[in-house]
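Entry 14. Structure prediction run on the chain below.
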Amino acid sequence: MSVLALPALADGCPEVPDISEAMAPLYDSLLTAPDEGTARLIVNRMWALWDDAPDEPSQMMLDEGMRARASYDFLRALDRFDALVGYCPHYAEGYNQRAFVNFIRQDYALALPDLERALELRPRHVGALSGYALTLLALGREAEGQAALRAALAVNPWLAERALLKPVPGEEL
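Output returned:
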C-alpha cells in the first residue's frame, strides 16, 4: 500500500493513503467469489482498509464514532463523525459512517449527500454503494434506487440487498 507523498492538508489531516493497489485484487475476487460467505470475508478485508484512517487523531474520531453508534448513542456518533469530516474532508469513511448513523435514524435526506460524497472519494466502496441504493429506495426514489442497487451488485454480486432488486422488463434475475 502506497501513501501519496503530499503535504498535510490545510485542515491538519494528512493526505488519505492510496489503497487502490491493495483493493484491486479484492474487487476482482468479489466478482469470482463462489458464495456469500467467501464474499463476506473479502468485504471484511476491504473494511479493514477503509477503516484505516489517515492518522491517529482521525482514527480516534472514527473509532469513537463507531463505538458510539454500536451502543446506539447516535448523537455522540454524529458528533465524532462531524469532527472527522471536518478534520479529514478527503476521507470517505467519515462520510460513509455519518450517513450510516443518519440512515439508522431514518433521516435519509441527511444520509444521501454524505453517501454521494463518500462515493465521489471511493467510487467502488461497497458499503456506500449499497447504502446509497437503500437510501434512495427509502426516499421513494425507486428507479434511482434500483439503478444504484444494480451498480452496487456490479461490484459485489453477493450483497444481501440483491433481494430488493426488481427485474427490468425482459430481464431475468
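Helices lie at 20-32, 36-50, 56-70, 74-87, 92-104, 108-121, 126-138, 142-155.
Filed with the rest of this week's runs.
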